[in-house]
Amino acid sequence: MQKRELRVGLKAPDFTLKDSSGKLVRLSEFRGKSPVLLVFYPGDMTPGCTMQLCAIRDDWQKFRSCGIVVYGVNHADAESHQTFIKKHTFPFPLLIDTGKKVSKRYGAIKTFFKAIIIKRSVVGIDTEGVIRYLKRGMPKNSEILKAMKPYENGT
Questions:
Q1: Is 6 within the bounds of a domain?
Q2: Counting CB atoms within 10 angstroms of each CB, which of 77, 107, 131, 141 has the fewest?
Q3: Alpha-carbon distance 1 to 9, whole Å?
Q4: What's the domain range around 145?
Q5: Is residue 112 in some structural domain?
Q6: Number of domains in the chain
Q7: Is 54 a catalytic residue?
Q8: How do residues 77-86 score in pLDDT, each as one tens digit?
Q9: pTM of structure
């Protein structure tokens, strides 16, 4: 059986991951409460990833005013994530995707030479668990916020 590629309008795959402080995060716990933005990125402390996550940090009030819960998702360990968060004062948690399992479920994987790496991907999920925004690369925050605005605060 072939897996369906994720796209806008489909249910987001549920997952449970730990954040860098050890807290378990379950996507299903946000149903009926808050939209969620998942930012899959290749590596802590790398130039592109730092730029992307710092841009979200810089627009943090805009995301908060829409009630959007933001998580960075990467395979690095808790110590690496904590260092990255502290250095750049991220106001959102980074999730530890051991084995890149959740990244694979979200199609956020690519092969680079022989290495399997996380493909930069942004996924917006509404309060019913439906994907409302999905883009590979580094979309502008204004584009993300515009796409997610109709789903803010459970509406």
A1: no
A2: 77
A3: 21
A4: 16-154
A5: yes
A6: 1
A7: no
A8: 999 999 999 9
A9: 0.93
